[in-house]
Amino acid sequence: MLGGVPVYPSKDKRFVSELVNQIQTSKSFILAITPEGTRKKVKRWKTGFYEISRATGLPILLTKIDYSNKKMHLGNMFYPTGDMQGDMRKIQGYFRASWAKHPEKYYEWPPVD
Questions:
Q1: 36: left (phi over 0), alpha (psi -120 to 50) or beta
Q2: 51-55: average pLDDT
Q3: Segment 20-41, tens digit of pLDDT
Q4: Burial level of 19, CB count in 10 A (0-12/13-18/19+)?
Q5: Residue 93 above 80 pLDDT?
Q6: Is residue 52 packed enough to be buried (19+ CB in 10 Å), middle (13-18) or exposed (0-12)?
Q7: Of 60, 35, 61, 63, nearest to 47 (Cα)?
Q8: If pLDDT is split at 50, 70 and 90, which confidence band does 113 have?
Q9: What is the rounded distance in angstroms from the CA atom of residue 84 to the CA atom of residue 70?
Q10: CA-to-CA distance for 78 and 17, rounded, in angstroms?
């Protein structure tokens, strides 16, 4: 059975800890998150997906959509090391702006000034 967990844009930091608890107490749980948290251009990725992975010990399955070729790619499992900046650079290296539907909205980690 598929379900969903709504995420409301707020500054409530309890959401990540509540979600971690739900994952840890569930028999099975699949979670899909886009790090941007929106479809518009962002200045920074949200880091909840990283925090959830670290807190649960579960890997991040890197997945991307190649819009121009209409393909979805499932990548490797990524286990965060705790070095968020280094890990985010590695995760970002998996994605390409040319694959985005709107490359002008593509986000680079860290932002290029």
A1: alpha
A2: 92
A3: 988 899 888 888 877 766 667 7
A4: buried
A5: yes
A6: buried
A7: 35
A8: very low
A9: 31
A10: 21
